[in-house]
Amino acid sequence: MPTITTKDGVEIFYKDWGSGQPIVFSHGWPLSADDWDNQMLFFLDKGYRVIAHDRRGHGRSSQVADGHDMDHYADDLAALTAHLGLKDAIHVGHSTGGGEVVHYLARRGQQDVYKAAIISAVPPLMVKTAANPEGLPKSAFDDLQAQLAANRSKFYRDVPEGPFYGYNRPGAKSSEAVIANWWRQGMIGGAKAHYDGIVAFSQTDFTEDLKKITIPVLVMHSEDDQIVPYVAAGPKSAKLLKNGTLITYKDFPHGMPTTHAEKINADLLAFLKS
């Protein structure tokens, strides 16, 4: 399997298909590059080079005990883009991956990046603070860690069966295949990485990062997102960006790149071509 080794000795697995302008996909917690299958096939068919990696501690990358924070996530992404020598790249991040993309752009610079998109993403800040009253209380994330530590396998069924894909909404038709694939991706990764990752995605403040970004960024978020509430995320990020465009969806779930791939892919393609 293709991997790179970071400066602190972590092997990062990645996929790299096709040629043309590169699109780099950063996945959500606690998943893997496989969560982008639909998008990678779609954009490969449109003539793009598509790349996705497993975050450290996730998927097929090293299950290390340390470095599960946004600084390391961004630096690992930078190591991958440098290894592949990417120019004029497009970066797309979902959920935690959206935070990774934002922190990467602010921390490593934008000189080789054409555009970016963040989907159902965690910036600017998920946790509730005096400056962020719309956020979720810290106790909500403490509870996620407790559920993971108590029975990770059950927790990784409960999340996709319920709020992640909106299958808990009245009249929603759930897909066992989608739920099982979420569970599969999660269970391949490491418990320590996922446990620490809850802190990384919920308590990292991306406000200053967003202000530094000057390239065009598409922000895609649904008002019915039950994982990353809309009011504290999408509109705020778009406002903080110098060149941000917001697309709001009314009743799509957090995992809309899977459940509504056709619409998300079409809107993303239109933005890339605009």
Summarize the structure.
The chain is of the alpha/beta class. It contains eleven helices and eight strands.
Shape descriptor reads globular
Largest sheet: 8 strands, mixed
Low-confidence stretches: none
- For this structure, the quaternary state is single chain
Mean pLDDT: 98
Gyration radius from CA atoms, angstroms: 17 Å
Proportion of strand residues: 15-25%
Distance between the termini: 35 Å
Percent in helix: 40-55%
Q: How many beta-strand segments? A: 8
Structure explained in plain terms:
With 274 residues, this protein is α/β, with parallel strands linked by helices. The chain has helices at residues 37-45, 70-84, 96-108, 138-150, 152-161, 176-188, 191-203, 207-212, 234-240, 256-259, 261-273; strands spanning 3-5, 11-17, 22-26, 49-53, 89-94, 113-119, 217-222, 244-249. The protein has an eight-stranded mixed β-sheet with strand order 1-2-4-3-5-6-7-8, with helices on both faces. Helix 9 (234-240) links the parallel strand 7 and strand 8 (244-249). The longest helix has 15 residues, at 70-84. It is globular.
Task: Label this structure with key terms.
274 residues; alpha/beta; 8 strands; 42% helix; 16% strand; globular
SSE blueprint and pairings:
Elements: E1 3-5, E2 11-17, E3 22-26, H1 37-45, E4 49-53, H2 70-84, E5 89-94, H3 96-108, E6 113-119, H4 138-150, H5 152-161, H6 176-188, H7 191-203, H8 207-212, E7 217-222, H9 234-240, E8 244-249, H10 256-259, H11 261-273
